[in-house]
Every structure is written in C-alpha cells, then in structure tokens.
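Much of our argument rests on the idea that a fold can be written as discrete symbols. In the encoding step, the backbone of a single protein was reduced to a row of integers, each denoting a local shape. We regard such an encoding as a compact summary of how the chain folds. The record that follows shows the chain in one-letter code together with its fold in token form:
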Amino acid sequence: MEGRIPGKAERGDWFGGSVTLLDHDRNGRVDLTIGAPGENKDSGMITTLPGSGKKFSTRKSRTIGLSKLSYRYPTKAGSGSSLGR
C-alpha cells in the first residue's frame, strides 16, 4: 500500500474488525474494505481502498460514517462490524 489510511487511530476503534475484498467499482479489480465498528462512540466507520490488481491505494480511498450519511441514530450503531455482499 502507498500513503496512509485516512483518519486517526484511536483506542477502541476496532479498525479491521471486518474486512472484504470485492470489486465495488466493477473495474475487474478487487477493492479492500475495512470496518471500524468502534469509531466515533461506536457508530462505526467503513474505509474502502481501491485495488490496482497488484496493490491497494490510499490515494482514492473513501471513508464513510453514519454521520456523513445523516443517519438519525449513529451512536452505538456499530457500522462496519459486518461487511459482505
């Protein structure tokens, strides 16, 4: 991987609590999605790193949390605790 993962590591984030390898952008290469269900008072966060076929890049990574999605009850939601198809 090149660069850094977006955000700041904090105790209790559980970064990597779940991971998947799926082709989210349908370009024929798998992308790495990492869940951090303890992030932001257990509301959770999901980070996706696009794949190039040989490695993953942080350059075009995306981080999504429930607060960015205007979810009404983000506290203790645990977003990112389970990832999959």
Q: What stands out?
A: DSSP finds one helix and four strands in the chain. Residues 1-77 form one domain.
